[in-house]
Amino acid sequence: MLGLWMLGVAITSDCIKSSPNDMPHPNPDDSLLLIRCPSCGQRFKVGEDLRERTVECGGCEHRFRIDDEVIVRGRKFYPGERSAPALNRFQRVPLSGGESLIGAQPIRYGNMPDPAVIEPVSPQRIMAGAVGVAGIVLMALFLMFGGASGGLLDGMGTSNRLVMAGFASLLGVFLLYYANPKARFKALAVGLSLSAGLMAVPFFFKTGSAPLPTRGDSISGGTVNLKKEEATDVVDSSITALRSRIGTGPLVSEMEKYSLSGSGKRAVGMWLRDLNERNKHLVRDYIVRVAEADSTTHLYPRDGGDYLLVVTGTGKSLQELAELSAPLGQAKEIYPEISVVEVVVNNENFIEGTMEKLSNKEDPAFYDLNKRELESIELGRVKRAVQRLADAEPKIYRTDITRKLIGLLGEEGVDFKGAVCKALAVWSERPGPASAAALKEVRRLLAANQPVPPEIVSLIVLEKNAEIVPILDELWYKNPMTWESLYGDLGQPIESTVIKRFGETTGSVRYSAIRLLGRTGGADSLPVLASAGGGSDPELKVLLEQARRSITGRLGQ
């Protein structure tokens, strides 16, 4: 009891020492510390001024120091969790009647600001703004340059272009408005300015805004007896209607350009009827290859699945172009007045047959299907057919297949002419045409400084075409190991050429020349071999002796 009395005296004296002018705390218990005796665990409340001072427990008379170890910490709680008047000071907005509780003038708070104004701009809004501006700019570029001849907007009227511009403008303004929550009016002003510029583009860029002519019915000829002037008018009107139906504007422009250039080249048109869109690039590449045309050859879509193919920079006539279009379908009509060939396309020609029948040599359809594959405009299919026919026995369609293979040798776009010559070696019926085509290709390759495939030379040697001797002699002299066998297959006609070249030979080339003379030479080769001597080279002596024995054996000496 003495300890409690001392603790009470200390608290009372502390209160007496405090200034009489101090304002009483509205919640006295808030300034007291809750402590626990470390000996008996009894709890007490003491003033804040006794912190770090020694006191005596009134229960067990144990003396201890008031520090953080004996102060009891209360559980944390949040405003609104307890209903106590002292918690009112944690309110963000003062409660009604707060003046009577606190005794002071309440603080007045303003309205809560819009979170969109104080928060950072989200990535979604940034992307929306970028898309809005980019969409307006891209649409402006599209309207400026999309109306060129053959472009996506070619033939689209101004009203339709304004609809496209209006849609892009509305979308862009909306995205800009959404992307700028802190500056709505500024974003709206920028968006409307861009939209005004976009809407003005169709009025200044009118290229291709005139509608394209629609397909009409062709004028059919009748049996009415007309006067000469009337007949001329009918023909003129028919050509005019055909021009409008095909839309020959791009062709006329290209024809004028080539007529002024004086290059001897020309521009012609192919009216491709019923051509599937998936085959249009295949057809274009084929015509460029076989017509030896420029890469600027272009397709222009027309109504009803038709296309106008403007073939530029070609030297082929309309009749030749009609013949070259046979793999595409049927060349229906030639219109020399407008330089156009009408071709009805058979899209089934672009479908490859089943591999089972194409590869089975015992199948009756093997030869027919592979012959059709040779007429395909896709070079990959043609190459596979050539490889299959090179390993097959020539039973039927021999003339047709040979003619097609010879034609492939003359096409510049074919990069598998070695395989073609290998197939011709099997299918060629009589010597002459195949070797002549192969010899022409060899000369072209040499003139272009391109490598010559041995298969092409092998076909010429197989048909014993003597015109290859000087060409093969040059090839052999540069690379005897590659060309010696083919050179020797020509037989006796090479003897004089090898004898002329013998004096220039050294090393491995001389060894090869001796072997060739021993294989093909006659009496004229013996003095040349005798003059070679042999010297101290044992290998050369052996080759000379073998060559002399081979020649004398053929001569019967």
What does this molecule look like?
The protein has 23 helices and 9 strands. It is an alpha+beta fold and 557 residues long. The chain has a 5-stranded mixed beta sheet with strand order 6-7-5-9-8. It has a two-stranded antiparallel sheet with strand order 1-2. 25% of the residues are buried. Residues 1-27, 97-102 and 213-234 have low confidence and may be disordered.
Question: Rg, please?
Answer: 51 Å
Query: How do the strands line up in the largest sheet?
Result: 6-7-5-9-8
Which consecutive residue ranges, at least 5 long each, have pLDDT under 50?
1-27, 97-102, 213-234
Q: How does the overall form come out from the CA principal axes?
A: flat
Helix share, percent? 40-55%
- Report the average pLDDT across residues: 80
Quick rundown:
A hairpin with a 5-residue loop joins strand 6 (298-301) and strand 7.
What secondary-structure arrangement, pairings included, does this model have?
Elements: H1 2-17, E1 32-36, E2 43-47, E3 54-56, E4 63-65, H2 98-102, H3 115-118, H4 123-145, H5 158-179, H6 184-204, H7 228-246, H8 249-261, E5 266-273, H9 280-290, E6 298-301, E7 307-314, H10 318-324, E8 329-335, E9 340-345, H11 355-359, H12 366-374, H13 379-390, H14 398-409, H15 417-427, H16 433-447, H17 454-462, H18 469-478, H19 480-489, H20 495-502, H21 507-520, H22 525-532, H23 538-555
Helix pairs in contact: 4-5, 4-6, 5-6, 12-13, 13-15, 14-15, 14-16, 15-17, 16-17, 17-19, 18-19, 19-21, 20-21, 21-23, 22-23
